[in-house]
Design goal:
Chain lengths: ~200, ~200, ~200
């Protein structure tokens, strides 16, 4: 049906809408459908079908399809973590999705299962882990390190040389001062300046 | 003189400067000139002429020209509302202007007389009313609804699933938390986080 | 070796990393190397060599090379000022660097030795002085004036008609209200709204 690899998204809420938009613009994947426990089969999300529930995840042919977790992460990432373990158990391939509207430096590294949304930027020498959300308009400055399962929300800015450890949630439009270390599983309030 | 439709801007202040820049970049309209009550005829604004005052608005041929209100909206939109009623009375055509530097999802809807300025983003499933200003670097996240006559100022972020009712002013770099409802004619201070 | 003019960067820290990324994307200069007092000769920064210390600055052939100060400016710009005087004394040519990912209005003017980083915007009728840093994602709105040696940090927004005098530091994600005058050598805290 398509020369492009297929992708299945897990989670059909609002974050999924944004990610669908990015995948369409990136035009690198054929969107097979969405897995969601709370939506009926064949329910349409921006024109794409719900094709199963979490219990169906083990039934896929792991050779021919990529997966991406599109459950949102507001404060807690426990559902995303559980799903990631399930995908890992089945040795499924994880997609990384980068909006063509984002800027990712050629000197940066992006993990597996991570999305970089429209208008975000990832500057020189940055390292981003697996299963992260670098949301719309967010920015990661030079030499920063972002651990696995972090959500850098819309418009948030991580300044140069910061280390954001695993599982952090940085609220919308928050700002992290140069060179700070945000410890594991921290929640930084929206609109705040962390210094 | 030009195959492109003509446009007349109403209001020659600072917001007009920004909009002129966007219209030039969009390159979709021939700029006929600017209507302003406080500037002399033939006064130049970025090279374009003041061609009349508000009293001249009824004299145009509504078949051949589009209109856009470029009076700013800081806190109050009463002048913009009055002008909109005047344009409506004459059944004039309203331009919508979208910067080629902005991102507007193909899953979003934009009203008439609305401008989306440089570097702004309008994400999937968003609905924006008439006569709105989505200013430079502002962002509207997935599934949000913006009523008529709203000004989302520079760098402000409306997060997912918000409803911003008619006539709201969201100050520069303000942030609206996910799923909030901002009631009609609200003023949200610059730099604040509304939760 | 290259038809493009050569450029030497002075200062090899984090800000230099970001600037190197911009110069690469702009693709207008051949990067000759970096001058740094604290790094050994031939040390590599994103693949480019340290080629000398400040004491070597007078030894260049000023006809064939451009210079850009890439020492950062957090709060104080005294080192940048001292280097600028040295470059001036030798009548060296100053590079201005504008990311192709930034937006600079054709109605704006940018000084010498100034950098406009990725995703920044400089709107209509803006005037920016010499040796400024308009950092990633920062925005300067219509009709604003930015003096020499200002650093508008990541994500900061200067709204319309502001005057930012010489040597100001506007912290990350700070916001300046419309029409304000920020006096010489001011420091505006990150994340704050100045009204």
């Amino acid at each position: 049906m398509s020369d492009r690899p297929s992708i299945v998204l897990i989670g059909g809420g609002g974050h999924c809408h944004s990610v669908l938009d990015v995948i369409e613009q990136e035009n690198r994947f054929h969107i097979l459908g969405i897995i969601d426990d709370n939506l009926p089969l064949d329910h349409k999300i921006l024109g794409y079908s719900v094709i199963g529930a979490d219990a169906d995840i083990p039934k896929f042919n792991g050779e021919s399809v990529y997966f991406l977790i599109t459950v949102g992460h507001i404060k807690s990432y426990s559902i995303r973590l559980k799903l990631a373990k399930l995908l890992e158990k089945h040795k499924y391939k994880l997609a990384s999705v980068i909006s063509p509207r984002a800027y990712v430096s050629s000197h940066a590294r992006i993990g597996r299962g991570t999305v970089v949304m429209h208008n975000a930027f990832v500057n020189a020498n940055v390292e981003i882990g697996d299963h992260c959300i670098i949301n719309t308009h967010a920015g990661i400055e030079h030499d920063a390190v972002i651990g696995d399962f972090c959500h850098i929300s819309t418009g948030a800015i991580v300044n140069g040389n910061c280390i954001i450890e695993k599982g952090c949630f940085l609220g919308s439009n928050s700002t992290i001062s140069n060179g700070k270390n945000i410890v594991r599983d921290s929640i930084i309030g929206a609109g705040t300046f962390y210094k």
